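[job 4471] stage=fold_predict status=RUNNING
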Amino acid sequence: MALPFDHIASPYNSMFSRSAIGQLQRKRVWGYVEKIIPQLKGFEMLELNYGSGDDADLFGERGFNMVATDIGAEMMKVTEKKSNQFSMQHTISSHYVDLDNFNETLFDKKFDLVFSNFGGINAINPESLKKLLNKLPHILKPGGRFIGVVMPKFCAWETVFFLLRLQMKKAFRRFTSNEVISSHEGSDIRTWFYSPRQIKAWSKEKFQMVSCKPIGVTLPSVYLERFFKLRKKWLFSLNDFEKKFGQSSLLSGMSDNFIVDLQLK
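[job 4471] inference complete, writing structure tokens
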């Protein structure tokens, strides 16, 4: 991975995880994962690019033996602090893992679920993502699952938001196969966007796609947090619509994110 995200650990934790929009989107993901828990054969879980650590904390509370991985040392400190605060250090361990050079031999056990939330795999280039999807079967138990939340190549909310601000380049920034570089806290962050069709094609040899659903199709992008902060009723109404339209796989390619559920063949 090109850049450790140490410099954005705390800002990310507050900007997305603590925003009303971010919390609603995250609850959609949590709700999906909790529904498939009874289908798993065990509670060994590996999280890739765990970021703020909110997901690791939740699934640690749910009884998973979590191995949470990231490339940023500061990100790890955030999660370790939370785990110690809630006395979950025995169910959650954190490790440095670079997804660009993912090494499946680092792990001494196999997992029932590998999980990556909110753009974790968007931080790696297409070739690295293909290699990752080919290596994951080596650390999954028979019938194991990979669930990823991915930023697609088009987001209706994002495009409209930037068009209204006359920022044409940003409005269509996802419409590319190349890396997109954005500036945050004085540093450049590299991102690649992927369509559901690409994920399915790159994983079909070893995985079957169980489900693909939009996350943030009627719920807005976090860019609009300030606007909806004073319009909570509107936001909750949009969340109600999300519960309905969020079941359509056809809308996955135009949402803020989409959740893809792959099961090992």
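[job 4471] summary: Residues 119 and 244 are 23 Å apart (CA to CA).
[job 4471] exit 0
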